[in-house]
Amino acid sequence: MVEILAQTEKYDAVEVAVGKAVYPIYIGDVLEKLTEFVGNSKYSSVMVLTDSNLVKAGHLKTVLDALKKSGKKNSHGILRAGEQFKHKKYYSDMIDAVDEVELDRKTLLVALGGGVIGDEVGFVAATYLRGVDLLQMPTTPLSGADSSIGGKVGLDTDKGKNRIGDTKQPIAVFQHTPFYQSLKDPPIKHYGYDSGWAETVKHAGIDDGLHPQLGTQEKFIDYLEKNLEGLISFDEKVIRHCMLRNAIIKGNIVEIDEKESGMRVGLNFGHTFGHAFETFMNRILLERDPSGATVYPHGDAVGVGVHYAAWLSLLKGAGLTKSQLNRQLDIYQRLEIKTKLPKEAQDTFEEIYSFMSADKKAISGMPQFVLQERLGQLQKTGDAQPDGSEAKGGYYLQPIEREVLKKAFEMIK
After folding, report:
1. Ordered alpha helix ranges (H), 263-297
2. Residue 159 pLDDT > 90
3. CA-CA 20 to 30 A from 133: which of 177, 323, 367, 387?
4. pTM for this prediction
5. DSSP label at 297?
6. Coil vs helix vs strand at 138
7. What residues does 382 pair with on adjacent strands?
8. Smallest Cα–Cα separation from 235: which of 178, 319, 278?
């Protein structure tokens, strides 16, 4: 189980043990802690990789200033901003960014940014010099809640998201939540902040997020529902507590199942459809804007995907009730996260089904899904995988009949 290390006025901290990797996650005002952590480390130098958006926001300068105080030599590189560049064809550009400064294995690589940067830099850290150490520094609610924890890193291909990847556990995660204040203004507010809470709502929908050191028995879904206004108004206390719950939920899962043989697949709730829908929407947006600068918000794709998976849960009698489905839907909608198919996707079941059939969890071209038993709990389908091999923490995937998939599709229009 994840251990809560500290709950101070400035930050919260937990420790996650995943396989041989044991690392802390700091949440809150963490820059002084970052300086201390790096200063006491074995590394001779630190390199920060980020993108142009973080430079404009001033976050790169803030982090470099903190690193300078550590006494370690530091450098930085700038990657192109946007999901469209998290693609295998840009991998050589990513490697060039670190190769130019001739890093060695005593250099710590820092991923400063959202989920795209975390995936890109994580994959570079996993492959450059056959592996260098990685520190994740997420700057959005989406990356803080999900992608920075657990070690999944990778790149997209023309066939879909994250089809090339590795597991690269960080040596630490530093989530400086004051960075979120830079996401207050449109158009970045929806893309970077509002839709960024989609993974947090998903976590509350699949796990109660309880912990004996937490000092409360309030389920995460109940806390979230009561404190939505705090998230909407950028309340630092509410943000920190939500991120602490996220770290507990995801940390506990990946401690049991690092490689996704069993219960970790539950974190993909809503993502089989969500990723397929996101791929479809991005193809439409690419036709409209060939530069690739406009992409569909991942958080909105997760919201639509969770709505779809909830309907599958209801239609298959997994245990989720209609009132629970509506309650979950209301939380997404109050956060202004999309949950329904836009007009251009409403007659596209066959095309989206083809993307789901190519999902990495599909078996012989048949999409597999995770269903909800109730709010805060998934439906476990067995103790082992279908072929009898080990499923750490239990098996949660199941195939769904095509006609049921199509019916759920109709319900989210």
Report:
1. 271-288
2. no
3. 177
4. 0.96
5. -
6. strand
7. 395
8. 178
